Structures are given as C-alpha cells and as structure tokens.
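FAQ: What does a ligand-bound record look like?

Like this one, built around glutamine:
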Amino acid sequence: MHHMTLAEIARGLADKKFSSEELTQTLLARIVQLDPQLNSFISLTEELALSQAKAADARRANGESGALLGAPIAHKDLFCTQGIRTSCGSKMLDNFKAPYDATVVAKLAAAGAVTLGKTNMDEFAMGSANESSYYGAVKNPWNLEHVPGGSSGGSAAAVAARLLPAATATDTGGSIRQPAAFTNLTGLKPTYGRVSRWGMIAYASSLDQGGPLARTAEDCAILLQGMAGFDPNDSTSIDEPVPDYSASLNGSLQGLRIGVPKEYFSAGLDPRIAELTHNSIKALEKLGAVIKPISLPNMQHAIPAYYVIAPAEASSNLSRFDGVRFGYRCENPDNLMDLYKRSRGEGFGAEVQRRIMVGAYALSAGYYDAYYLKAQKIRRLVKNDFMAAFNEVDIILGPTTPNPAWKLGAKSSDPVAEYLEDVYTITANLAGLPGLSMPAGFVDGLPVGVQLLAPYFQEGRLLNVAHQYQLNTDWHTRTPTGF
Ligand code: GLN
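The answer part, i.e. the structure of the complex:
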C-alpha cells in the first residue's frame, strides 16, 4: 500500500479497493516503525489524521470525489496548523501552537487531504542540508550517512522512504528542488505569488514560495492544484486563474525549445552530474524537443546577491521573535533588554543568528547602499537574463545541484561551502520564476536531479515536460533499499 502514488491512491479510493482510514492507519504505523532512522517528522498528528480520514471516507460514501479526498500528506513544519505545534525547526517555536491554519493547510484540508504530521526542516528554513534543525538532522533514505538536502529535508526524506506519497514544502533558494534532487523526488517551486504565503512562517518574504514534493510530476500536479490560488490574505498573492494542471501533463513535446545555459557547465559541476544532465537532454530530444544553447551572464553574481537579500529580509522577519509575543522566553530576565537578548540568544540556533547578523549589517545605515541596494540591482539583472532567454526558448534545463548529497557534517563547519551548493536553484527565486526538479539518475548510489525553469505561471509546462520524461524513463520509480 505504501508504494502507491497520489494518483494511484485516488484511483484505489474511487474504486473502493481500500478506505482512507485503512491507508492512513497503514502509513502511520509505517512512520512509527521506520522514521526513527530518518528523523523526518517533528510531530505526528494521529488523531487529526484518523478523524480527517474518516470524514473523507464519509464524503466519498456520499458521492463526493476528488484527487485529494482521503489522500495522506504531511506539512513542512512552518505551515501554521491550528492547535498543533508549528516549530519551524526551532527551539524558539518549540512551544508554539498556531492559533489558525495557513491558507495552504486550510485549502488542502477542504479538498479532503489527511494530515499525518509535520515534517522536520532546517531552522527557519535556513540551510541546504537539514542539519540546522533544533530537532536534529534528517537522514537521507538513500544512504543514512548522507544529508537529504534542505531546508525541506523532512518532507523529502519521508516521501522518498515511502512513509507517505507527498508533502508540502517551501522554497526560498532551492528548498523544494534541492532536497527533491537529493532524494529522487519531483519537486516544484511555483511562480512567486501562485501559492499563498499566509500562515507560512516567513524566512525571506520576497523569495519564499510553497509547493509540492512528490515522486512524480503527475502527483505534483495533483498537490499543486490543491495549494494554488489567489488569497486576499496575502498581499503578494496573484489573482490569476489556476489552470487544470493534470490536464496539462499530456501535451506533445514536439518542437519544444529547451535552452541550455553555457554557464551551468562550469568547473564547479561534478562531471558525472553533467553527463546525466546531457542524457536527460537527449531523452527529451527523442521526444521532439529542440535544444538551444543560451547564456545567463549574471548568474555568477546570484549567490552573493541572494545571501545579502535573504538574510536582510530574515533579520526583519525574525525581529518578531522577541520573547514577548511568540515562543521561547528566557528564565528570570533582569530587565527588558536582558529578556530580548537572552530569549533570542537561547532560542535561535547558530545559523539563524549568523543570518540575522549578516542581514542587520547589510541593512544598516552606511552599508545599505553597498550591500542591499547593490544586491537588489543584481536581482534585476538576473531577472533580465531570464526574460531575454525566454524570448528564445520555452524552458531552461540544467542540473539542480552541482554535487550529489554530501555526508552528514561534511559542510556544517563551513557555511559558505554550503551556500555555494545553491548555485543553480537560487536564480529562480531571485527572478520569481517557477522551477521543477526531477530524478535523472544516480552517482555513487545517490540520486541526481535535473532542473527545468519556465516563464511566469507556466507550471503546467514544467509538469508536462517532466511527465513526458517520466513516461519514458524510470529513474523516478527507483526505491531506496530498506524502504
Ligand atoms: N539554502 C538556501 C538558504 O539557506 C535556501 C533555503 C530555502 O530555500 N529555504 O537560504
């Protein structure tokens, strides 16, 4: 039962092969049995799951249908869930029970999805390895000595290990696509503004975007359908109709123009990943796609710009955690300043404190022009590069990451080495574009992903290309041994 995709579950439920309650019980038992090896969950929500499953079964018995009705999922632990701990992977929010549901959580619940729990993540979504969580590192099911990627490492490890078919995640600089690549999943970061950020605890508000992590493009289409849409509660949500993503999967790739940026194949890229990327290009050519070399000349400036903008926004967003209103408060403060300092010093982990310091510095008088303003200008140049490229091509293809998943601890003492691993993913966030990572092979037994980028609101095109690729390859069907 645990091997089924969301699409297979939807068919099984519609054909009455099993009930949502049976499936939910099976998966909850599997999580209890196997997750201690992975640490992919921060909280299990058994009671909620069983009541939602029973309600979904009753709705089906009454003649309702829907691809998510009775489908088990989990939420990254930065989506607010009413009455349930929403920790953001931090000691700061270890005791925080959200008073309301995030829009994404409410929409998926209304569609009948069943919440099995809240998944582990890098603290406040800062990281590329899922090692900065207050609840401990998450392990990669493909090799328990390796990281699963971050910051949505819990969602990725759980889905890859077949503990559940799909999960929500967020992507500020790659946190959906990079863990998808590291664990052999398909993950989609939508266009900025496509999915509501209301109730999604903010890291860097102009970059953050929620999206699906699943095993197939077909399942990403199903989950995105339940997440996307205009939300008046989010002032950056865009009032554009949501297309039928599942209906977009079957388009022909004949004549599709795929741009391959020459800057992607530079010295930092593992040559084995370069080869797998070229193999996926060949597979798409066989399906009728036409390859065009392109250039993204400002890509080299993207990492420094991102690591100014994201910490700057984070330093502002995280100022609300002051020991007064939310979460952790230190013991016996001497005065108000002591309360602020110790609550934040004791509640935030090292990486979060580093980002707050970098961000506050970049925003301070005298440095604002030199760092923050300069970074914003680079951001515009990165976007302009993409706009020029999309005049000539329909999608852009390249590796998702320069290296496969590294060993736990290998980069934790060198933050910059970890930042450099985001080189292929962060440009899409700076430009607000949609991006998808799909399984494309293995290096030393570890999965490798290929990234597709498309113009604004062309999530359907990304899903279409990935689905056609998956009909003709079997990388995405491989299962980690032991799971
Ligand atoms: N690794 C990047 C960072 O630490 C991206 C994380 C994310 O997408 N949430 O900022």
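Follow-up question: can I read anything off the structure? Yes, for example: The chain has 15 helices and eleven strands.
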